Each structure stands twice: as structure tokens, then as C-alpha cells.
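Standup notes, structure subgroup. Blocker cleared on the adenosine-5'-triphosphate input:
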Amino acid sequence: MDTEQIGSRAADFFKQLKIKDILKSLRVRFFIIVFVTGVVSCLVLHTMILDSYEARAVSVRSTEVQTQLRILANHLIMYNYLQDTSSDVINAELDMLANLYDGRVMVINDDLKVVKDTYNISQGKTIISEEVVNCLKKGSKGTISKYDNANGYIEMITPIIESQVIEEGDVSIVGDSNEVVRGVLLTSVSTDTIETTLSVLSTRAKNMEMIIILVILVFAVVVSYALLKPFDRITAAINDVKAGYTDQPIIGPNYYETEQIINAFNSLLRRMKVLDDSRQEFVSNVSHELKTPITSIKVLADSLITQENIPAEVYKDFMTDIVAEIDREDKIINDLLALVKMDKKASGLNITSVDVVALTENVLKRLRPIARKKNVELTLESNRAINAEIDEVKISLVIMNLVENAIKYNKDDGWVRVELDADHQFFTVKVADSGMGIPEESLDHIYERFYRVDKSRSREIGGTGLGLSIARNAVIMHRGTIEAESVLGEGTTFTIKIPLMCGNTKTN
Ligand SMILES: Nc1ncnc2c1ncn2[C@@H]1O[C@H](COP(=O)(O)OP(=O)(O)OP(=O)(O)O)[C@@H](O)[C@H]1O
Ligand SMILES: [Mg+2]
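Run returned:
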């Protein structure tokens, strides 16, 4: 594949991807979460560190200048500078301070007049700043400092305090009566150096951040890819199963969560396999059963064709056998259809109010001819009238199958007793016979499709092994139960128990 092809394929791929689909991906979400968390914490850290550096630097600078100002204020008192500004020492000291901190110092007396300004601008003017007035009038023992970060300076107001001297005149008396505020030092100090350091730090931090963000990006990609890899494995394994490459259970080192998915999927797979096996078995049983009569018909027909001058009686005999085989085939097909119909839950029940005693009598009437053939005595016992909300056709089928079996698998001159009973919730039909009985190990299997205790004998009798399976399905559809008890050689009793009101539990 050349690069052009790869390019056009990639373009197609991205065209198909929609933003909504992309955001739906767990991997993309995971990536976004890791990446955003990383970047946000990085940025927060950046801002916090720079802010705290700034606050700390400003506070250090303020304390440093304040100490100097306090010393200066003492000197001003000592040299009586407020009255006489000619002192070279103080002037030099003021200039030095102003230069050192790249700032401006104004000395203000208690008349709010500026006696000295290191910028030489405001000398002689009156200052009416609220802070200055407050500092003078109310008095303040400490320096007030204010940081103006927009313009890059710290403003400080330091009282010039004279101690122990009580003079006459209009002066403010502050706190202890021997401390008097004589004036104020109004200083502003540039914070340019702090800002320069800040901008240097910020640039460095930004460079570092770029690297860290790149690392986080790579990390987020790797983590989101690696952590969600088990899900890819599951999808691939499920696709393999779907495509039919394998029916092996999925395995793999995984997380607890993916293990849950795998377990659920594996049990689904097992269930599907069971269903598939039983379907295959059913199909092979069906074909086998359907083939048997056809094989017989073919053998019979073949022998008629190959032989010449066959007497009419033999012809008739063979034809009768052929008709019997066709009837058998027809019965199997009808039974299978009944079974399939009942398997489909949607087919549901056709519930009506039914007189169960009359229904049973009707079934027995239809079976009497067969019973008579074997000289089996067929009796019905019922002590009360039973009316039930049931599907008449299906329950007839159930009773018919049970009684038919009881006659078929009976001995000559035996008996079959059908007992009906009911309480306020259920009615029961008991079909007891004096037949050959069912071996204990077969009792669990008699409801399986095509199961016959004695295959060769049953076929001789004419059974396909579908009757009980149909009966059980019909009983279950009515939310009833079916049970069998048997003593080998003595007889069998089937009991079905069906709710009187099936209409409430209709299955469709
Ligand atoms: N009353 C009974 N006494 C003895 N064996 C029985 C009795 N009922 C059923 N069986 C055994 O159970 C098997 C399954 O019965 P089922 O009614 O499902 O099939 P079948 O009678 O062989 O064929 P079908 O009813 O489909 O014509 C029978 O083949 C038979 O071996
Ligand atoms: Mg049967």
C-alpha cells in the first residue's frame, strides 16, 4: 500500500468518526480526564507558587523598608527635622533610602504640610490623604503599608513619634501620654525587581509546563490505551466467537470488571452450546424417525416392483403395510408440529371455561376401541364436578397421551384407572395402569423428545417418544406439574396438577 492510499484511508476513517462517537469512547474520555487533571493541577500549581512568591517578596521588602523608616523617623526627631530641614545628614539619609529602594520619601508635619519630598515636587504642599490624616489624628504605632501591584509599588505611612517630651501646643496625644505623633513619613517603594523576578520565574515555569504537559499527554495516551486494552481483547474474542473461528471460552489476565464480563459471556456461550447441541440432536432424531417409515415403504414398494405375477392378496398385504407406514409418518409429523407450536411461547393458550369431567370422558371414549383390542379395562372415577379455566385442546392432548401410553404399555387383560379430583386451587388427573412399569433410571428421561425406554419394543407398539414431551409442555404452559411413579412389572401412575384458573397466568 503506498502512502497515498494510506492517506486516503485515514481521511475516510476520520470522515466517518463523528464528535459524538469520539466522545462516547471510554478510551477518549479516560484520556481527557487524565490529561485535563494533569494540566489543570500543573496550572494551579504554577499560579499558586508565583502568587505566594509575590506575597512573600512584598512582605520581606515591606518589613525591610519599615525598619529603615522607623530608624529614620527617630533620626528626624533627633535632628528636629520637621522644624528645620537643613540637616545634611538627614537629607543624605533620605536620598539614600529613596535611591536604595528606587522610591520616594515625603516627610509631612502635623499640619499636613510636606516639609521634604525626595522628588522635590510636592515640597510645601498640603497632603490631604485620608490615611495620612488618620495616622496623624488618631495615631498609629505601626507603619501602614499598601501594595499596589497594578502600578508596581508599595506605599507606606510611618508615624514620626516623639517620646517622653510633653510639649505645649496643638499636638495629638497618643496612647501612652508620653508618645506624640509629630508627623508622617509617606514612602512609596518600587516593586520592579520583584516583578522582574516574577516574570523570569513565570517564563521558566511556562517552559517547564510545556514539557510537563507533553509528558502528561504521552502518559495519558499510554495509560488510556494500556488500561483499556482488556476491553479490546474481549471484543476481539467475542468477534472470533461470532465469526465462528472458535467456541473456546474467553480467557485472559484482566481486571475484576472485565472478568465479570468474561464470566457472563462464557456462561452465555455454554448455554448457547447446550442449545446448539440439543438442536442438533433434535434434528438428527427427527430425520432418523422420519426416515424409518420411508425406508420401510421403499422396501415394500421395491419388492412389489421386482417380483412378477404377485397374487392380489400379497399386493393388498403390502399396500396395507405401506398405508400403515404412511400413517406413522403422518403421526410423527403431526406430533412434531404440535411440539414446535407449543415451544413457541407466543402461540399462547386459548383459555375457556371447561368441564374437565366431560372432557376426560370424551377422551376415554375415543380410546376405548384400542383398550378393547388389548382387553384393557378403562375406568373413570370422579367425585365432583370440575370446572377449570384451561385450554381445552391442549389438556385433552395431555390426558389423551397419558391414557394412550397406559393402554399401549399395558399387559393384556390389564386395567387403566383415571381419577379426577380438585381442591379450591388445583384439579388433578391421575392415570394409573397395571402395565410393565418404567425403570427408575428412565423416569427422569421419559419427557425428553424421542426418548423411549425400550426402543425396539416401543417402535413395535408404535411410539416415537414425543407424546410425553408434548404433554409436559402443555402442562407447563398451564403452570401445572406432571409427575410419574412406577414399579417395574406392576404399573405406573402419572399425576398432573393444574391450576383451576389459568386465565390469570396466560402466557401470551
Ligand atoms: N404408562 C407407561 N408405562 C410404561 N412405560 C411408559 C408409560 N408411559 C410412557 N412410557 C415409556 O416412556 C416412553 C416415552 O413415552 P412417550 O409417550 O413420550 O412416547 P411414545 O409413547 O413412545 O410415543 P408417542 O407417544 O409419541 O406415540 C415410552 O416409549 C415408554 O417407554
Ligand atoms: Mg405416548
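Discussed briefly. DSSP finds 14 helices and 13 strands in the chain.
Next: hand off to the docking folks.
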